[in-house]
Design goal:
With about 250 residues, the protein is an alpha+beta fold. The chain has six helices and eleven strands. It has a seven-stranded mixed beta sheet with strand order 3-4-2-1-7-10-9. A four-stranded antiparallel beta sheet has the order 5-6-11-8. A hairpin with a 2-residue loop joins β3 and β4. The protein starts with a helix and ends in a 14-residue tail after the last strand. About 25% of the residues are buried.
């Protein structure tokens, strides 16, 4: 899965670069199977700047920032990517759609995976560093949670343990970085098979819960990316889903 690994790395690199849009949706079916739809976007201007920086770095005999191959994840051979995926795909996961497109000065990657169950989804490289769990509570409902294992903004969150000075320094750094990250918008959504009972999502529409991280609307979103434990509780009546436990 060399190329998909590159896309996964690039997804994190995009966040660091700012001017990025990420949209990810997990749809869970009543039998526990489902789909993962991902859409990553970066402005064409930013892509050109990154490519120029990569060429400069290579000209100096240095490895690329992400240690990835020379090709850009926004320029790819779909047939070759599918071959790479089939050669080393996790059991229970299928790549069903992959494309790129240009819209209004932005370039996007669109990808859809099908999975047999959430345990299979956790075996993909997109979730190997996250805690994804599904358990049944005492009321018979299902609780789906997800936390990130990656520290997107470095160790800045740890400065909260440094007392008053650390908290002030963290606030100053966040304020300074908000301009660099202008345009950053990450939306993570979950579509569940039954009625949503409870959730800490920022938006709820029917059976879809979404967590929206938009730095233009909330300058503190960088710290929230690391500290938010996404949680949705949905009705368990009529369901018998396999539980998936976190690594904690």
């Amino acid at each position: 899965m060399r190329y998909l690994r590159w896309i996964g790395i690039m997804a994190l690199a995009l966040i660091v670069a700012g001017c990025v849009k990420v949209d990810q949706t997990i749809t869970l079916n009543k039998d526990g199977s489902g789909t993962l739809e991902m859409r990553y976007g970066m402005s064409e201007q930013t892509i050109a700047q990154l490519e120029a920086m990569q060429q400069m770095s290579q000209g100096m005999g240095e490895e690329g920032a992400a240690g990835a191959e020379d090709e850009s994840p926004f320029e790819f051979d779909e047939e070759q990517v599918r071959k790479d995926f089939e050669a080393d795909k996790p059991e229970g996961v299928e790549l069903v759609a992959l494309s790129s497109e240009n819209v209004g000065g932005w370039k996007y990657i669109n990808m859809t995976l099908k999975f047999d169950d959430l345990e299979a989804l956790k075996r993909t490289e997109f979730f190997e560093d996250s805690n994804l769990s599904l358990v049944r509570d005492g009321d018979g409902n299902y609780v789906l949670t997800q936390t990130s294992g990656d520290d997107v903004v470095g160790d800045m969150g740890d400065m909260g343990d440094m007392g008053g000075d650390g908290e002030e320094m963290q606030a100053q750094m966040m304020q300074q970085m908000s301009a660099m990250f202008a345009g950053l918008r990450i939306v993570t959504s979950v579509v569940v098979p039954t009625k949503i009972i409870d959730t800490n999502a920022t938006e709820v529409e029917g059976d879809k819960a979404s967590w929206v991280f938009d730095i233009d609307e909330d300058p503190a979103v960088l710290s929230k990316l690391d500290n938010t434990k996404m949680r949705v509780v949905f009705a368990g009546e009529g369901l018998s889903l396999p539980e998936v436990h976190s690594r904690d």
